[in-house]
Amino acid sequence: MRNGTRDAFTPALKPMQWEVLGSYLQPFGLTRAQKLIDQGSVDRTLYMVESGSLTVHLEDEKGRVRLAVVSAGSAVGEGAFFTGLPRNATVQAADACKIWSLTPLRFTELSNRNPAIALEIAMALGSLISRRLINKPKRVAVT
């Protein structure tokens, strides 16, 4: 899950810490055009993209507007993960993807048992959000 772009989700974890984190995540696949997030839904799950790419769309009365493409090595769902607000965009697979999900409940368990890993995840997500907010085309792609 390497990504050298400004949109990379880059927690500074050691290999052993990645293994611990992996035990709190749920892997699953998406097929091309399958929806991951529906705009307006209330769900706080964070999604990390291992392979493939996702498109982020804003849906209004005139149709869909593509906001961003999120590639392997990045994450989506970070806005709702922190705020608990409804999802502000729809996210779907641009091609086949492998995704890892982290629910708020599993993050709380991680925080209680492995606070250093949880803190690093939170800081890396904060960094990702900040980079997206200063990048005007991706500013509204915080999901």
UniProtKB/TrEMBL annotation:
Superkingdom of this protein's organism: Bacteria
Domain Cyclic nucleotide-binding residue range list: 9-110
InterPro entries: cNMP-bd_dom, cNMP-bd_dom_sf, RmlC-like_jellyroll
UniProt xrefs under Pfam families: cNMP_binding
Gene3D superfamilies (UniProt xref): Jelly Rolls (2.60.120.10)
Full protein name: Signal transduction protein: sensor, cNMP-binding domain-like protein
Organism: Ramlibacter tataouinensis (strain ATCC BAA-407 / DSM 14655 / LMG 21543 / TTB310)
